[in-house]
Amino acid sequence: MNNGARKTGAPVVLKTIKSTPGLVAAYQLHWSENAPEDNPPDEYIANLRNSPDGKWIKVSVEKNGTFTVTNGRTGVSRTFRK
User: Fold this and answer.
1) What is the DSSP pairing of strand 28-30 with strand 67-71?
2) Would strands 57-61 and 67-71 be described as parallel, antiparallel, or unpaired?
3) Rounded distance, CA 61 to CA 54, Å?
4) Do strands 45-47 and 28-30 pair parallel, antiparallel, or not at all (unpaired)?
5) Which parts of 1-82 are beta strand (E)?
6) What's the gap between Cα 55 and its chain centre?
7) N or C: where does the chain have the smaller number of CB atoms within 10 Å of the terminal CB?
8) Buried b (16+ CB within 10 A) or exposed e, 17-41
9) Can you tell me the distance from the alpha carbon of 49 to that of 44, in angstroms, rounded to the nearest whole number?
């Protein structure tokens, strides 16, 4: 989710995302001040609460439908297959 700490991430939005059938992971650019109880685990957030901004999330997509998500804060990449 492309969000700012106070721009998006309303509780109803994050609850809807979390309840989506088949959801494997939800990444956010910023920890949501609007829905503190509904943020994903820290490993999926590029800019944590009260931390300096500027970290990123990169998504690389292959022609076969495989894609890799990298969290710029942690340096951890995760690949998802079609």
Assistant:
1) unpaired
2) antiparallel
3) 23
4) parallel
5) 28-30, 45-47, 57-61, 67-71, 77-80
6) 12
7) C
8) eeeeeeeeeebbbbbbebbeebbbe
9) 13
pLDDT tens, 16-67? 888 899 999 999 999 988 888 888 899 999 999 988 889 999 999 999 999 9
Supply the pTM of this predicted model: 0.84
End-to-end CA distance of the chain: 20
Domain assignments of the chain as residue spans, ordered by start = 11-80
Sign of CA dihedral 68, 72, 73, 75: positive
Rounded-to-integer distance, Cα 41 and Cα 27, Å:
9
Residues 18, 43: contact at Cβ < 8 Å?
no
Report d(CA 17, CA 52) in Å as an integer. Answer: 26
- Sheet containing strand 77-80, edge to edge, reads 57-61, 67-71, 77-80
